[in-house]
C-alpha cells in the first residue's frame, strides 16, 4: 500500500488516529481491536497504523443496508486490505 501524500486530510487523519490510539491505551489491557472499515483510505491507513503499533486488529465490513445500497467493491477492498495487512476479515 502506498502512503497518501499532500492530502489536506492528512492532518485530520493523523489527529483522529492519535485520538483513537490514546483512547485504546487508556487501559494497558486493550490488546484486540475490532475495527469497522469502509474500504476508504482513512480506515485502511488507520488499521495499518493500529497493527504497526502492536494492536491485534480484526477488520470488519458491515452490511447495514440491503445489497443494492452498499458497495460490493468496498467490501472487496476491505478484504484485500486485510489480506495485505495479515489481519482477520469479518463481514456482518
Could you walk me through the main structural features you see in this protein, from its secondary elements to its overall organization?
- This is tRNA 2-thiouridine(34) synthase MnmA.
- InterPro entries: Rossmann-like_a/b/a_fold.
- It comes from Candidatus Nealsonbacteria bacterium CG_4_10_14_0_2_um_filter_37_10.
- It is a single chain.
- The longest helix has 15 residues, at 10-24.
- The chain is 45% helix and 15% strand.
- It has 92 residues and is of the alpha/beta class.
- The protein has 3 helices and 3 strands; from the N terminus they run H-E-H-E-H-E.
- The chain has a domain at 28-91: FAD/NAD(P)-binding domain (3-Layer(bba) Sandwich).
- Helix 2 (41-52) runs parallel beside helix 3.
- The mean pLDDT is 85.
- The chain has helices at residues 10-24, 41-52, 72-85, and strands at 32-36, 56-61, 89-91.
- Strands 1-2-3 form a 3-stranded parallel β-sheet, covered by helices on one side.
Q: Structural class of the secondary structure composition? A: alpha/beta
Shape: globular
Gap from first CA to last CA: 25 Å
- Rg of Cα set: 14 Å
The string of secondary-structure elements, in order, is HEHEHE
Helix content: 40-55%
Strand order of the largest sheet: 1-2-3
> Residue-averaged pLDDT, rounded?
85
What is the number of helices? 3
Major sheet attributes: 3 strands, parallel
Named CATH topology of the domain at 28-91: FAD/NAD(P)-binding domain
